[in-house]
Write a structure and sequence with these properties.
The chain has helices at about 15-20, 20-30, 45-55, 70-75, 85-95, 100-125, 130-135, 140-150, 160-170, 175-195, 205-215, 220-250, 250-260, 265-275, 305-310, 345-365; strands at about 5, 35, 40-45, 60, 130, 280-285, 290, 295, 300-305, 365-370, 375, 385, 390-395. By secondary structure, it is of the alpha+beta class. The longest helix has 29 residues, at about 220-250.
Length: about 400
């Protein structure tokens, strides 16, 4: 039997969340599985082991919750696609993604591209803007609630609610405790909305309600299923787009390469998801005694999969801390998870990000940082609160 080495530092303090990568490196260097003293659970920070765990839901289950605290898991386990396993998970995901198939998304693709181009044109005319508040937030906050069918007159608190949901899924620190009332408010509103059927016709949410009316879904699952899609589709997408602009502004050679070859947009976005993973971590519970790497893990153990650490593992990605939009294996990242629990909304997220990056490449000659870039501290979402930039318009031929 090989025991796991231990790591003493709390990975969720403000200081660590602001710049976690030295801590992630230290955890990776200790071994394939590490015991986190501050959180009393195992962690996996290396790529090979993380991907293997995500690919084995039978051994590493989600049905006992994926949060890093028992209270959140007790509330949400078994209620949505994120926290279910096996046939139940397959059924819930099938109900959810009926309006998220590639064919369904093609119907909104042109509208997203047009909205992205118009938004970028407006911001370029201003000359200076915040790439988070004015760009990364603006498009998803329009597209995602419409696709979900969220009432148009009830969107003022969506970002606050979504952020709180991810804080609550972290360890039970002060940040999680403060988030609890906000997350509960979002679920209460979703319950009320589902009960009244006040969702836009033809939307994902309306489709879920119709499935419940046909008897395909228990009524109490409707709101958790809708919120389980809505919150991640806002926070992770906003995080990734903001990070992409920050990285491109900070690496002028990469911006020049993207402008010279806009076909690199998908790979540039993948490289962003790798280097600045929107989601820091989720956990799993072992259903039997198992082994990861050379380390034995007992049955019933909670294991934190550190996506953001695995995506910078030098064993998988040469020069892991470099931003390289031509990286050959950038698409191997775990930024949207892996396996059966990979992000259900990643197709839409890619569509939004690709549209904005393409519009920027067409309309902007140069992007420069115009002030301090600040972190948005959240237990599980890695994001920037502000990325002020100035842009030089591209000459139109």
């Amino acid at each position: 039997m090989t025991a796991a080495p231990s790591y003493a530092h709390d990975l969720f303090t403000d200081q660590v969340l602001s710049d976690p990568y030295e801590h992630y490196r230290a955890v990776r260097d200790l071994g394939p599985v590490v015991w986190l003293d501050a959180h009393q659970m195992y962690a996996v920070a290396r790529y090979a082991e993380a991907r293997a765990i995500l690919a084995d839901p039978g051994t590493y289950c989600s049905g006992q919750g994926v949060a890093l605290n028992d209270a959140a898991n007790a509330l949400a386990a078994g209620r949505n696609t994120l926290m279910t396993d096996g046939k139940l998970h397959e059924h819930l995901r099938r109900v959810l993604i009926r309006n998220l198939t590639p064919r369904a998304l093609r119907a909104v693709d042109d509208g997203i591209q047009q909205a992205a181009s118009k938004l970028v044109a407006t911001l370029v005319a201003q000359g200076s803007f915040d790439a988070v508040a004015d760009l990364a937030t603006a498009l998803p906050l329009t597209v995602v609630p419409d696709l979900v069918g969220w009432p148009a007159d009830a969107r003022d608190h969506l970002l606050e609610w979504a952020s709180a949901t991810f804080d609550l899924l972290g360890p039970l620190n002060e940040r999680a405790k403060c988030a609890a009332p906000l997350s509960q408010a979002m679920m209460a509103f979703a319950d009320e909305t589902a009960a009244t059927g006040n969702l836009l016709p033809g939307s994902i949410g309306a489709g879920v309600i119709e499935a419940a009316r046909r008897g395909e879904l228990e009524p109490e699952r409707v709101a958790p299923l809708i919120v389980g899609y809505l919150a991640p589709s806002l926070d992770t997408t906003i995080s990734a787009i903001g990070s992409a602009v920050w990285l491109l502004a900070s690496n002028p050679d990469q911006w020049a390469a993207l402008r010279a070859d806009p076909a690199l947009v998908p790979n540039a976005f993948n490289e962003t998801l790798r280097l600045e993973s929107p989601l820091r971590a989720f956990s799993r519970v072992t259903t039997a005694a198992t082994r990861a790497g050379d380390t034995d893990i007992p049955a019933g153990a909670r294991v934190v999969v550190l996506y953001a650490a695995a995506n910078r593992d030098q064993r998988q990605f040469p020069r892991p801390d470099d931003f390289d939009i031509t990286r050959g294996n950038a698409g191997d990242h775990l930024g949207f998870g892996w396996g059966v629990h990979s992000c259900a909304g990643q197709g839409l997220a890619r569509m939004e990000a690709h549209a904005l990056l393409t519009a920027l490449a067409e309309q902007v000659e140069r992007i420069d940082l115009a002030g301090p870039v600040t972190a948005a501290l959240n237990n599980l979402i890695n994001a920037r609160a502000s990325v002020p930039v100035t842009v030089t318009p591209a000459l139109q031929g």
